[in-house]
Amino acid sequence: MRTKHYLALLGSLLMLIALVACSSSESTNDDDSSSGGATAASSQSDKPKTDNRMPAPKPLQTKSAIVSGAVANVAGGGKGTLKVAMKTLGNAQGLPGVASGGTGDTIPGMIGLMEKMVERKASDLSYKPHLAESYEVASDMSNIIINVRKGVKWHHGFGELTAHDFVFSQNDAGLDNPDSTYGNLGYIHQYQDTNEAVDDYTVKMNIKQFSILYEPVIIGQTFMYSKQAYDEKGRDWTITNPVGTGPFEMESWTPNDELISNTFVDYWDGAASFGQLSVKEVPEDATRVALLKTSAIHVMDPVPFSFMSELLDDGFAANNDNQAGATQALTYSGNFWMPTYPKEGAGPEGEAVTPRSGFEPDDEHPWIGTGPDDESARLVRHGLSMMIDRQLMVDEILLGQGYPEYINFFSSSLPEHKDEWKVDYNPEEGHKLLEQAGHPADEFPAFEIYVQQLPNVNFDVFDALATMWINEGIDVTVNKTAYQAFRPSLVDRSWNGPTSCCACPCVGPLALYDEPRLAAKEGSTIGEGDWNPGYEVYEVINAANDVEANPLDRDARVAANLKLGDFFHHQMLSTGIVHANNPVWYDPNSISGWSQEISGGYNSLETITLLTEGFENEQKRFRGTMQKEDCKPTAATKCE
């Protein structure tokens, strides 16, 4: 029974009240005396927090504390506040051109602020028109005509979505913005030429290079942003103020603290049944679990697998509809082996590539080779990979909720995966390879693994990997610097330590073997100026070209990818570790009806129905008024 855990949690929860009670209260959000307020205020150099907020045109009638159970009424909307806690909320990012990887290009969609032209459906894994009404590819694949959905309203009164908004959003993401830091800038440069608004609801996308994944990587590449908002408010304002078309309209966004949104009553696809959404940043996993257990929140994003057993025992539910399980992989960064730009590179074909400061093939970086023929570095990468006990991770960390992976971007769960790609756990053989390479474990240089602080990264997996290597005599530490702070060293190719890589569904079982390897394409100079997985090799772009040259021949596309898989296995530039299911958790006594689509994070919060009575009853029990049959009176509780 869930109540048996309440007394044990009561002490810790009382310590959390100050944090959570501030989350939806208008007065406490502006009170620098609260712990969350003090942190946010100090990050703004003593500026008032309201400087970073966008006032909504329809203010709330009531804002209630998150633990109160009070119902907030929003003008024109439903009742109740859906309360969500997530590990990383970050800063408000508006324009596509500042939506850096991992936060700005994912979170606005997760929390229902912004939308794209297409959406991948859970029912059949296919992409369907979303903000687009329809689209059509020219017979010669030189352009795509998009018919923009009519009647879609922008938040905060900025008119309706038009073709001009689409052109503006793509241009700002990088097509016509040399200062763009958009997280998927490489895709913009690779596929798009120019976009033109034929009329108010028709876009002609002129294509530089067609992709069989044209729906997500071309049509649906960026979130749409209001051109009218940009024209009226200017760039400085729109950088930090998301103006979208989604089911929730931002009321305020306190950096690294809390987002408050109102249900957008004019949402084109049907407004949420509740009135308000509160998303609180709660970095500590145990704190989020305690909040869920004590009914202070309805939903939380994924937590380490160590919490799974107790959450299920306590009657909480895991939602994996979005298939957001992620492949956990490690890249041996620094292997930048492209001396000249290819045809598709960021520089003129044949011109020398800008020197990469992270390319240091020396005794301090024995995993970095001078090129694909460097046998010593190849043996080091294989030797280290053989010291990873993948099955043990599945059994002990994932509690069976996952499976081993061996090559990043090539899921072992799909039928085309080759048996010879499997990497057996064999530390003895791994040591022999290190010795053969001239870098035995007792002489191996100390190094860091950088673990990206992103939503789908399973941190326990990488802690376990480091421990396994330490147990084999390797001196390794884990670097967990915030992603946005660390990202510049990935962009400029200066980082050259092993790196957690590409923990998203796009490199797992959702990436079928006839499809381009998506993020793997960025393992070449084509993504210069953008994030990079830690290597640049011609084989990656060659395979991508072979796949895309055969849009109507599945067998040819599969063959090209299998050839690339053979290269990745041989070189072991990016080793798979495990595929981890990554569910989001909720209280089935307080919400129902949640149906997610396919994405890298939780989504479709507007489909949730609040069971307010059940939620309030749970909170009442927490505050000390318990049912007699469950109650044992203490100094902190009473029985009725």
Please provide a written account of the structure.
The model is unreliable at 1-76 and 620-640 (pLDDT under 50). This protein is of the alpha+beta class and 640 residues long. Helices cover 28% and strands 16% of the residues. It starts with 5 loop residues before the first helix and ends with a strand. The strands form 8 sheets. Strands 8-9-10-1-11-21-12 form a 7-stranded mixed sheet, covered by helices on one side. Strands 4-5-7-6 form a 4-stranded antiparallel sheet. The chain has a 4-stranded antiparallel sheet with strand order 15-20-13-18. It is built from 19 helices and 25 strands. 52% of the residues are buried. Helix 17 packs antiparallel against helix 18 (554-571).
